[in-house]
Every structure is written in C-alpha cells, then in structure tokens.
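seq/struct pair 1
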Amino acid sequence: MLITRIAVRFPTLTFIAVALLVIWGLGYFFTMSRREDPEITIRTARVITYFPGAMPEDIEQYITKPIEDVAAELSEVSNIESISRFSLSLVIVELDSDTPVEDVAQIWDRLRTKISAIRGTLPDGSTEPVVDDEFFETASHIIAVSGEDYTPRELAAYAERIRKRISLLPAAGRVQIFGEQEERIWLEFDQLRMARYNINLDSLLNSVQGTNVLMPGGEIESEGSRWTIDSSGEFRSLEDIRRLPVTGAGGAGQLRIGDLGDVYYGYEDPTDHIIRVDGKPAVLVSVVMKSGRNVMQLGEQINAELDAIRDSIPGDLELTVVHDQPEQVEIQIGNFLSNLFSGILLVVVIVFLFMGLRTTIPVGLAIPLVLVSCFAVMSLIGTTLQQMSIAGLIIAIGMLVDNAIVVSDNVMRYMEQGIERREAAIQATSELAMPMLSSTLTTLFAFLPLAAMRAESGEFVRDIPVTVSIAILMSYFIALTVTPALCSMLIRPGGGVMNSRPLGPLMNWLEAVYRPVLAWTQRNRIVTGAIVTVTFIGSLAMFPLLGVQFFPSADRNQFSIDLYMPEGTPISETEQAVKAMERVLDQHPGVTTYMASIGRGGPMYYYNRVPGSLASWYGEFLVNTVDRAETRSLVPELRREAQQRVPGANVIIRALEQGPPVGSPIQIKVRGENLEELRGIGNEIQDILADTRDVIDIRDSFGVASRHLELVVDESQLRAIGMTRRDINRVTLINTSGLEVTEYRAPSRTIPVVMRVKGERRDSATDLNTFYLHAGPGFQPVPLSSVAHYESRHVISEISRTDRERELTVSANLANSRLASDALKDIKPRLDALEMAPGYRIVISGEAEESGEAFAGLGSGSVVALLLIILVLVAQFRSIRIAMVVFIAIPLSLIGAILGLYVSGWPFGFTAGLGLISLAGIVVNNSIVLMDFIMERLRQGQDMEEAIVKAGERRLRPIILTTATTIGGLLPLGLWGGSMWAPMAWVIIGGLVVGTGLTLIVVPMIFRTMAGSRALEIVQQDR
C-alpha cells in the first residue's frame, strides 16, 4: 500500500508525524474533563404544585389531571407519571429517548407556556406550578454547616457566605442551599380575650395589613422643587407590631395587638424539611459542576476555599464535606487506570515470551501510540475521561496489538525468505492490509448495537463503542505505518539473545500437537460436528443457572438509607425515628460521616439516586464508610439492627446501584380506576411477595390509610350569621397552621407574618368549640361548632398515575444477594393466577422493565450489524457460504462465554452483554485471518487438505498470540474490576479460550464441508 511504502521509505517523516500526534494526545489527556460517570442528557422534568391542606383525590382531580392533559399535548412526550398526595401534586414528564439534545430545553419552555395558560383554572390557594428540568443534576460536593450553639438563621447565614464564594469558581455551576429553616414573625393571640373586648378577626387583620404598606405617596412641586412623598407604613421592628391599635366592634374600646397575645420571631412551625449531619442540625451547600469541566480541579478549588473559610469562622462551627465526588472519581478512575496499565504490562510480557525482544519493541510501542492517538481523536469529539470511556480502552487494549502482531509475524516470515528488510516490511503489510481492514470493520460493526441503544442507558454506555471504534481504527492506522517502519529497522531474522523466545518451545509443542488434531477433525467431520453440537447445546442449557442482573451494585464507600413512617406521621415523630437510626450508626466505627434529610430528599448526590419528594413521614440518609469493603459488610448488618432498634419505621438500607434509576429491583404495578379495588389487589401481591424467599422491604405506594377530618358545614346557619366558606377556611387556618397576613421587611430579606391562636388552643384543634367565628357588626363571636361538625374517615395518602391511569406499585428489595430475575421466577406464576376484575392489569416493572427499555434498539441494531458484517465478509471472500463459515465462530464462542461466567460465579447482566458483543468482533477476526490464508494456499495450487493444514500451522502462532494478549489485557479487569466490569472480562476471556480453539479446529472442518467447492470455484476464476 502507498501509505505503508511512504512510512517505511521515509521513517524520519513517519516519526515526526507520530511525535506530533503524541504531543497532541498527551496534551489533551492532561487537560481533558474528568468525571465519575458520563454526562447524559436527562429528558425528564417534574412539575411541582402545592395546594396546602388539600386531599389527595382533590389534588388529583383539580391539579394533577389538568397538568397531565396539557403535558400530553406535546408530541415529544413519551410517558407521564404523577403522584397526588396531601398538599402536593408531582407530575413527571418524560420525552422520547430520541429527542434531539438541542430541542429539550425548548420543549420544557413550551410546557411552561401551556401550564401558564391553565393557571387560572387551578384552584385558588394553590401555588404556581414549577417545571423543574434540573433536578437530575448530580452534586459534585455537599458541604454541611453545623454547630450546637447556633440558631438556624446563623447556620443559614454562614452557608450563604460559602455559597457565594464557591459560586464564583470557574467550574462551579448551580450552587444551592438545602435545609434552611424558613423565618416567621408569629402573631399569636388569645381568642377569649378578643371575645371579651368584642374584637373580631377582621379588625385584627385590618390593623396589621392596613398599616404595613409599602407604596409611593406621589410627587409634588413647590417653590421650584420637586418632592416625593413617602406614605409607607412598613414595620421597622416587632415593637411596631405590638403597638398597633385595634378597635373593638362598634367602637367598644381600643387595645394594642400586644395586649391580645404574643408577637415574636421564630421559624416555620412545623417545618417541612430538616437536615441533620452526624447527629446535629445542619444546613447544606450543594455544588453542581458546569458541563465539560474537570471535577478534580473543581475539588482542589473548593478545598482551598473551605480552608480559607475555616480560618475566618468561629472554631466551634463545623464544615463537613459529606459528599466529595472528586474522591470517588479518584478512586474509580485510579482503579480503572491501574487495570489498564496492568493489562498493558501483561500484553507486553506475553509478546516478549512468545516473540522475543526485537519483535516486542514494535508491538509493545503500538499500545501507547494507539492510546495516545485515541486521546488526540477524542479531543475532536469532546469525549471525557470517566469509567465508560476507560472501560472502552480496556476492552480494546488486547485488540490494539492484534494488527501489530500479525504484521510483525508476517514481516519476520518474509525476512526469513531472504527479502530485503524494507521491502519485506512493505510486502508483508500490504498482503495483510485487506484482511486487517475486514477484521477492523467487523469489530466496529459488532459494537454498532451499543450505539443503537435507547434512553439514558444508551447514552450512559455510548462512550464504550465510540472509544473502542477510535482505538481499533487507530490500531489499523498504526499497523499500516509505524509498525512496518519499526519492523524494518528492528527485526533481524536468525538466532541471538534479541530474538530469543522464552516460550518458543511451548509454541513448537502446540504446533506439533495441532497438526494431527486438525488432520483428525478433517477425516472425522461427522463425529467432530456432533461433539461440538452437543457441547453447544449443553452450554446453552447452563445459561439459566447463571441468573440475570441488569446492573450490579456500585462498589463504593457509600450507601443509602430510606426511612418511612406510617403515612400522615408528623415530621417531629419522623425526626425521632431518624435520631434512633443515628444512634445505630454512631455505634459503628466503620461509619465516617452521615447526612439525614427529613421531610423530603436532600441534594442529588449520585447519578441515579433521585431524591424523595415532600412527605413529613419520610427521611433519607447518605452514609459514608471507611472503604468499600466496610460498606459491603455494614449493609446487611444494619438491616438486622434497624428492624429491632427503630420501631414503627420501615427502614430500607441499600448499596448504591449502577445504571439508570430503577428504584427497588422488584416493582409490580397494578393499573385500574377504583382505588379500593387497586388496594385489594395490592394486598394480595404483598402476600405473595412476603411468601417469597429473600424478598424484604415490601411496601406499596398507597401506604397506610391516613385519618382525615372532614368539616361538614350547615350552609343555612352559616348564611344566617352572614359568613361564607372562605371565612371558615380562614378561621381553621388561624386555629391550626396559621394564616399569613403580611410581610416583615428585614435587611436583605422579607419574613412572613403569620397569625394563629396560642399553643394551648391549637392543641385542642379537634374541639370546634374552641374555634370562633367573628361575624360582622351586631353579631357576637360564635363557636364554629354551632355551624359545623367533624366527620372522621380514612383516605389513601398517595394516588399514583401512569399515562393518566391510576396505578398502585408494590415494591420490594432482596436480601442475601439474590437476583431479581430469580425471585421473579417464583413470583410471576402466582401473579398470573390472580383473579382480577375487568379493566385491571398487572405490569412487572423495576429492574425487568428498565432492562427492557435499555436494550430497546439492540434488536434492530444487531440485525443491521450482522448484515454489515456479512457484507464485509462477502466483499472479502466473494462468497456468502465462506462468509457464513467465518460467522460460525460467533456462536461457537458462546460456549466459552457461558463457561467463563459460570466458573467465575458472576450473573449475566448488562456488562456481560457488552462482553458478548466484544467477543463477536474478536473471534470473527481470527476466522478472517485463517480463511484468508486458506484461500491464499489454494491459489498457490495446493489441494484442499494441504491448504487447510498449512494455513492452520502458519496462523497458529499469531492467532494464539493475539488471543493471549487480549486475555492478558482483560485479566486485571476480571480479577479486580468488581461487580460492574468483571463479568464482561470473564465473558471475553472464556469465550476466547474456547472460541479460539474451536476456530482453529472446527472452522476449517466446516469450511471444507460447506464452502470447499465454492472456494475452489473462486480460485479457478482468479487464475
């Protein structure tokens, strides 16, 4: 080839070009963005609307359904889910997975416009619906500010100082504060005293609202000057409120507000969100990194800022980094790079042992050259350094030297025939250019299905096929240029220390054994075929024994705890349960720090860990441990302790999971309209789950029915005293949570002024005799009990919907490392046997549903990939039959892949599937090289049997060597890659060990049987 001739004839030019490529690649490597995981586009937003005091069914009817309807009008929307619970509507809108990234923000703006258009139809008292399309942003850092002797306001003020300083850092994106307690000015009055002085509620409200006015008073011109008039009467202090005069009905006396009750500064009561860190109240600062930045650099900058801040704050104020993503990135990338470098070392050692030092140099140099070249190309497309791109490099590392090995071996063969060194390098490389191109293309096409995967899972793993493709293409380019140039300079035929091959005798022995075995299979094709067929069927029969796991647990020094109290539990009781869990954690020295968020989820600290929504009965923990091994031992131990030491709570302790958000691994959904019917079916499903081995943490989305007090009003009596339902609502608010009446303008902020009755009266809020209606002039205050009474009933606390259909979800976790696929085998037959009324159906969700969505697109992508591979093979060999013989190597490799998983003890999952795809590309390459040499021998006039034997002998060494280097490159990943990557490594290793042997022995036999006559026809045509 021309490019090879130029590279060999002008080595100086070649090495200058290589040097420039190395400088370019290394420059990008040291400056490229580093992350823990790939940056993916989340095509999901949530619409949050609050309607204080409203029941779930009212929330569903008057808020959730209208928002669902307008969201469904967007053509790009693929799925709508919603939750309606007390005071809250949460609608989750998901776009089609193929929605272009650049259109996503515009679609959410259209959704905001549509929701704004229906705002007037939503109930009075509900808040403006908020479309949040950033809630999936993962925090790189979570910093806690805590101190025993500091008020919530003081903690929030220090947190604000930190927020402002960190937000100025170049790589810092959104910086938020979590857990800040809302300030209040409380105006608590005594109803009996008001009644004694005939002061009604309107008088009190008018006094406060009519005085606290911030508005311009106009302008006047006088004596040639222009004057502005300030007629505002805003409060300057709490004493201003206390001194406000209030006049009784009919002018009956005048008092001040301070005479009727207390006016004091405080906080929202009850609060809806509490943050605790290491057992102390805290406020959090969450930092999200800007897109495309280096999280390691951001970490260094934040640490420097925190060191400076610590020097300027009181010594008893604690700053704790409860989540440090750079630390996790350093561990993850460090482990991957360690596996990468170990693989490189093993590959170089294997090449040296089989080929000698002279040949090792050009082959060994190919690895760093290809890697650095990869980084250069990655700079053009903006690929970041994270676990997926590094995994792609590790997958490719064993294949990087395949072309270099084949070229070096062929160059040596030409030199041994007496051809001049440079001409030998040119001829040997040119001879292999087309077979190597075919094998390169088939490998690229084998990874095509990964690029066709849909949803976030596809985007999550997309850097693997991209990185592998770049590496394989650069490997081909280096093999055509740099490798032959180095071979022409370094390789010398003959003996000597430089050509000494420590494992040469082993290779000679393999060659001696291989020839008679190959000859026997040629003579006994039926017996050989039967043995291979039985072995293949037997391996497939083993597959169910492996188990299936979509994504494994993350191997981290962190884990999560979800704590659920019975629905309707006040946040104060949930906090007590959280404190009980804190005491359990404090007794384990392996726990370093922990963060608890009560009432709602805290910042999103892991890419697939979605924070919980507002619920007073919910709490979540992020727990940090000394190391990953401690996490693995603590999780099952704490599960047992929590059941005994946190009474009344459902405590779910889990390791963090890999892959897209799944939630509980087992989720069984029941869809239908009637809530009671759904609950009945849900109870039956819970009974089935409770009777299934290793199924734990069973709960349903309806939860425990909450007690609800419905106020039944006598409308005729209400009209008789001249009042309305709005008056009753105002009175009930004042007697319970409070009624916001105005705002107090403090420096740099406004504080709501909230009116309510004194505490002892609120404690008896179920007694309507303590609620007084203050009618107009001429009416005495009357107790609310004279026009209304309570009726108690139980209501479902949460109503879930999917695609505008009601749904109940029964979820569960698994103990003792049992796989969801195994548990579902026991569960599904019993679910199928359930009798349900028409209109109700069961959908199995969780890991099963997510894996189906993730692999959507693999089917069509695999078909396209197979056709492209066959097209390349047909173009190479000009025969469909020969192409199919080459293709047979793929199913044969399945035997070893299944054995590799079975022996190593790993289940089949997502990364094992990646291994199968990689394996297909590798074993086809061996078949291509072998078939090409058989055809070459036939063209030289040899008969079929001799051509097969000679080709097998000639290609035995490079095939075994390329297989050994690939296994060597992946072995560190198999041993130390953890639950995520070890299954992939063992699939490839097992498949190569068995597949290579079968390729060398069985494929020639099949070739002779299926395509021998066609091959001879092609050879005759070439002559």
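seq/struct pair 2
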Amino acid sequence: MKVVELRLASMECAALGAAHEAASKRLSGIKDEEVALINEIASAESAIDVTRNEYSGVESAYKDVRERLSVLERELSSAERGRELAKARAEEIKRNEARLREDINELRGRADADAAERDRLGAEAAEADAFIDAEGLRLSENSSRLDAISAEYKAMEAERNGHAACALKTNARISEVRHALQNCLKDEDATAAREAKAAGVLDDAGRALSAMEEDRRAVGEALAKHGGRRDALDARMRELREALSALEAGLQEKNREIKEVRAGHAKAAARLSTLEEMERNFENIKGGAKSVMRASGLQGMRGLLADCIEANPGFERAVEAVLGDRLQYVLVEGHKEGVDAVEYLKGNGGGRGSFVPLRDARPLPGMAAVRSGVSGYEGARPLLGEVRVKEGCEVIVHGLLSDAVIVDSLDAALAAWRENGAVRTFVTPGGETVDCQGIITGGAEGGADGGILQRRAEIKKTAALAAALAEKTATLDAAIKETAGAIEAASAALEACREKLHSADIERIGADARLARLNEEMGRLARARTDAQRELSEARSHLEGISAKKLALSGERGGLETNIAAIDERIAGLTAALLRLSEKKEEATRAATEIKISIARARERVEALRKEASAKARQIEETGSRLSAKGREIEAGVAEAARIEGEMSEMKARLDALLGEADAVRKAETALTERLGDLAAAIKGAEAGLKERKANEAAMQGIKAEVSIALKEAEIAFENLCEKTVEKYGVSIDSYRPADDDGIDVENIEPRRAELREKITGLGEVSLGALEEYNELERRHQFLLDQRADLQRSVDALTSAITRINRTTRERFATAFEEINARFKETFPKFFNGGRAELRLAEDADVLEAGVEIVAQPPGKRLQNITLLSGGEKALTATSLIFAIFLMKPSPFCLLDEVDAPLDEANIDRFNAFVKELSRESQFILITHNKKTMETADALYGVTMEEPGISKTITVRF
C-alpha cells in the first residue's frame, strides 16, 4: 500500500506541479494585462482631469464675461438714465426761464404799488398821533376823581372786612361743631356697625369651628382607613412579587431545560442524519456488494440480506456474529440476475460479491428438526426467535440461522457445546460464538459504529429519541408560553396593585393636606373669634364716650348761633353803603377805561401803520433783490443749458461705445457657452470610457482572483500531499523518485489502491466529517467570492453615483449661490438704508469644497469681511442674508426665534418694516421680547403663570 500510494502521490505531485506552472503563467499574463489596463485608466483619468481643468478655466472665463456683461448692462442703464435726466433738465431750464421773466414783470408792478401804499400809511400815522394827545388830557381829569372815591371805599371796606372776619370765625366754629356732631353720629353708626359685625363674626366663627371640627374628625377617620388599605395593598404586592419571582425562576429553569433538550435534539438529529447518510452511501458495505448497490443499470437487484432481517433490541450483535459478512449478500430475483451482477463486477473491477437468488433458493436439510426447538439445552433458545424476517425471505434466513442458539454467556455456550454441539452454533447477546467445531470467536470490534444491524438499530433508536425530544421541546415551549403568560398576568396585577397603592398614597397626601388646611383654618377662626370679642368690647366703650361728646357740642352750637346774628346785621348795613360807592367808582372806572382803550387803539393803529410802512419798504427792497436774483437765475439757466447740451453729446458717444462693447461681450459669452457644452460632452464621453475600463479592470480582478485561488489551491494541495506522505510514511514526496523495478502496473494502479483501501477499511473507520467539512469550506469559499464580486459592483455603482451627485450638486449650488447673492444684494441696502454686500467663494478648485465669504459695506464704511463688523452690524447682515435665502424660494409661513434680540431701536424699525412688507405673501411667526416688534404684530400669544406651577395662554388680536 505504501509503494502504491507513494507512486500515486508522485504522479499527483507531478500533475500539481504542471497545474501550478500553468496557473502561474496565466496569472503572470493576467497581471501584465491588468498593469496595461491600469495604465490606460490612469491615462484616461489624467485626460479627464485635463479636460476638467480646461472646463474650470473656461467656466471661470465665462463667469468673468458674465460679470463684465452685467457691469456693461448696468453702465448702459445708467448712461441711458443720465441722458434722459439731462434732456429733462434742459427742458425744465427752458420752462423755468419763461416763468422767471413773467415773475420779473409781476414783481416790478408790485414794487410800484407798494411805494404808493407806503406814502398813504405815513399820513394816517400823523393823524393818529394828534388824537392820542387829546385823549390823554381827559384821562388825567378822570383819574383824580377816581382816587377820591377809592379812598372812601377802602376805609368802609376795611370795617366791613373786620366784621366779616369775626363772622367767619364764628361760622367756622359753628361748622366745626356741626361737623363734630355729624362725625359723632357717623362714628356712632360705624361703632354700632362694628359692634354688629363683631357679634356676627363671633357667631360665624363658632359655627365654622364646629363644622370644621366635624370635618377634621372625618378626615382623621379617612386617614385611618387609607392606612389599613395601604397595608393590605403592601401585603398584596409582596404576594405578587413572590409569585412573580417564583414564576420567573420557573421560567428560567424551563428555558435551561429546553435549551438542554434542544441541544440533545440537535445532537440526535445530527447523529441520525450522519447515520442515514452512511446508510444511503452504503458505508458499512464493502467489495462487490457496495459496487452493485451503487450501480444504476443492473436489473433484478432486491437489496441486501440485512434488509430482510430485524433483530430484537439487544440481539443485533448476536445476529451479526452468526451471519458475519453474509449480511452483505445481495438479494436478486434469480440466478440470471446473479450472473449479470458478477459479470458487472468483473467488467468494472468492482471487487467480489455474493448473490442470493430469491426465486431459485433451496431450503436446507434438517430444518424441521431445527424448528422443533432446543429444549435439551438448559437456558438456550433458537436465535430465530429473536429476529423478524421480511416476507419472501424466510427460506434464506431460516437456512442461515437454523443452527444458531442464543445463550446467556460464553460459559453457558461452552457447556451446551460439550453436551451436544455437533450441529449447533452457540452465540451470546454480546456476540461471542462457539461453532460446531468448538472454535471460540469474540472480543471488541474495531469499528466505532458497529455492524449493519447495529447501525440500523441505532438509527431506529436515534429517530425515536429525536421524536421524543421534539415532543418534549413542544411541551416545554407550551409550558414556557404558559409561564410567560402567567408572568405577564402577574406583572399586570403587580402594576395594577402599584397603581392602586399610588392612588392611595395620593389620596392620603390629599387628606393630610386637607387636615393641615383644616387645622390652619381652625386656628385662623379661633384668632378671628378672639379679635371679634375684643372688637365688640371696644365698640361698646366707644359708644358711651360718643354720647357725652354729643351733649357738650349741642350747648356750644346754641351760643355761637346767637353771636353770629348780630354780626350779620352790621355787615348788611356796611355792604349797602359799599354798594353805592362801588357804583360811583365803577362809573369813573368805566370812563377811564374807555379813554385808555381809545388811546391804546390809536397807539396800536399808529404802530401798525408804521410797521406796515416799514414792511412795504422792506418788501420794495426784497422785490428788487428778487428781481436781481431772478435775472442771475436766468443767466445760470442759459449757461447750464449750454453745458447740458455738451454733456448730452458726450453721453451719446459713450452710449454708442458701451453698446458696441456689450455686443462684443455677448458674442464672447455665446462662444464660451458653446465651448462649455463641448467640454461637458467630452468629459461625459471620457467618463463613460473610464467607467468601461474600470468595469474591465473589475472583471480582470475577478479572473485574477480565480487564478490566484486555483494557484493557491494547487500549492495547498501540494503542501497537504507533502505533509501527508511525511506524516504517514516519513517520505518527502518532492524528493521521492519511484524505482523502476517496484513491480507496479501504472495502468491498473487505481484499482489496486481501491482494493488496498477496501482492505484497510475493513481494519477500521475513517473520519466521516472530512467530506462534510470540505463541502462546508467549498460553500464558504464560493460565498466569499460572490460577496467580493458583489462588493466590487457596489463600489463601482457607488463611485458612479458619487460622480453624478457631485456634478448635479455643483450645478445646483452654483445656481442657488448666484440667486441668493442677487437677493442678498437687494435685501442688504433695505436693512442699512444704503450700502452694499455680496457673497464670495473662497479660492478653491472645487466649489463643493470652497468656503463662502460674506463681505459688506454699511453706509459710511469701507468694504470688509463680516468678521470685522460690529455685533449689531453682524446681526443685521445675517438677518438680511436669512431673508435673501427665504426670498429665493418663499414658503407659506416662516418662524423667527428672537432674531431681533441683538438689534437696536433704529434697526428694529427697519427689520419690522421689512417683515411687514413680506407678510403680504407669507405668514410670519415671531418669538420676541421687543415692544416695537409686538406693536407691528396682528396677534399676540403669551404664556403667563398667575399661580405657581400653572401656565396659562393669553391671546390678543388687533
């Protein structure tokens, strides 16, 4: 066997060397192709980069042209507006000149009229001065008469005032006494009311205290009941927790048990699968029987002799010991089919085999005597009694087992043989035999799985065990589900009990709070009752004092009223005399007043005439100045008109130049647009070619992987072969050289090795898991290859998607950036009342990686980065940018959260005005604390907390 296997190993080593060399050459060629393809890909990518760089340059030039065109269009617009303004100004100057000449004529006529009016006013002023002198003499005479009347009136008035002062004091005292009496009455009423109120409070407090005492007693009883209820709930929760713990422990035990049962079931199922696989592959059959059973073209084959026999449990070894290799006899229909099978084995080198013809089999002689029993042997019984035979095979099986007797032990077998063993074979249940010649056979078999019958008995036993374990698994699953349901129910009951306990605690807390409130209220009522008692006592004492005070005030009032009557009579006489003097004084005063009025009127008239004359003089001077100014204005208008005519000629020339330059820029823009389209198409075509090359590279990688795997497999096979020969025979196969005279027929070496292996198989079992392990590794290897190919496809798809997304993102970003920048340029001046601002991309080749800079120029400042602005300017600039982004694609509503917080009052007004303007199209929701912003809102929604812990919303609509 060693020489054969070494020769085969040498041949296999040579074949592996040739395969390794071929695979190495193919791998080298694939690597060369891969390097060439990688170079092509690198060249393609380089070309694409060049095209992209050119595209970026053209795109930059296109942007410059667009900016220049925009500047030219603005200059054109500005020039056209300037020309229109100049033309309008020239026409306005002509109209103004005509109007000024009309004004000059009108002013000259007005100056002549003002001179005549000035002379008339001077004459009227002289007449008024003469009237004032005459009226002054009359006023002097009337003043002397008035002074005498005034002195008499003053003396009489002083006497009356003295009596009036005395009367006033007396009346004041009378009023004080009356007021004191009224106050006594009011005080008396108030004190009586206090007395009644104190008595009422006293009664109410007594009744309230009685009622609260009852409430406190009821709350105490409720608290006692809550305590008992809580104790009961605590006990119930302890019971539920204990029950839940027991159920969870039972569930854990069942889970552990089902885990063990499932492991046993998996082990039994695996063992059953292995045994059935061995049975299907005829692992325990050797030689020709195995070849015939595996052959598919033979007719009349009816299985093995072992298929006809089923031994009772425990007697499989005994039957196998008696029958031995005869269990591998092949059952055929007749002799013809047996001959065909022998010819098949001879033709295919399948070994030797024995064939039992079912139709032509003959019964053995003496079978009737065998069936009569073995009663002459103590403790012995026929082996046929321990087997069941398939219908139609009785003759064959009975013939083979007719002389077999089962005994309990080897000693019993020897004793029986000595008595009469000439025609008997004695066998023990363990498989020890004593044949008719006295030959003893026994010992331990080398196989790990026993014979055919033992293996079939094990299959049956393992199947029964697997079924029992499956049934037990189902039972445990049901028990686990039932226990889980019980745990869920117990958990629900525990949660319900916990909720009840929580509710009881809440009720107890409420009762405690109510009891505390009752105690507090009772204390307050007790204090109120004490205060009421004190108030009642004080009111009654005060009423007694008021009564005494009323009597004293009434006596004093009577005396004062008598004195005031006499004083009033004297005052009346003096008043009548003063009335007569007052009439005389009034007459003199009226005359003096009339004289003064006439003098004042005359003086006012003189003053007005003089002022009017001065005004006319100034008006005449102003008219002359205005005439001079209008003459100068006419001269300036004529000069300005001449200058505007010259500027209009220059503007027309400038406009023509700008139009020509704009046409040239538009043509350049068209050319650059076409160039950009050509470059984009070129990039697209290059990317398609690059994608195809990368796909070829991926396919090449797959082929390379396959060849590398084949090369590695050849190396591994060679290493395994070397290790196997070294381990088994101590010979290195790479240095082994077979001898020419070893007598081995190379052409028939495989049948020879098969025959030798069949003999070795009879010596012991081989590893049954190697093939399964190889198949598992083969499936794993194929799975990894499929996964690698799938990952490569995913990488290609992802790369393509990233390229497409980047291109779309660049286009959309550029469009959005331009639009937002235009909006930003519009919104910024509105927030700053002037100035300018814009967005700029930082210097970078890729717009997706470039930063965005914000530059702004508020009114009166230079253009600078937003980081150099003040805090308020930053906030206002950021706000204008936010609105610019919003205006690019307005939404139905917009939420602003304290955007106006950093703004001052002036900026707040502009912010509110802008929001108000935009609110015509979109609804704005502002979160703010600024009063001015609130004033501009259509509705206010606020949240207040009137009571601690309780929020309340307030809505105000305008």
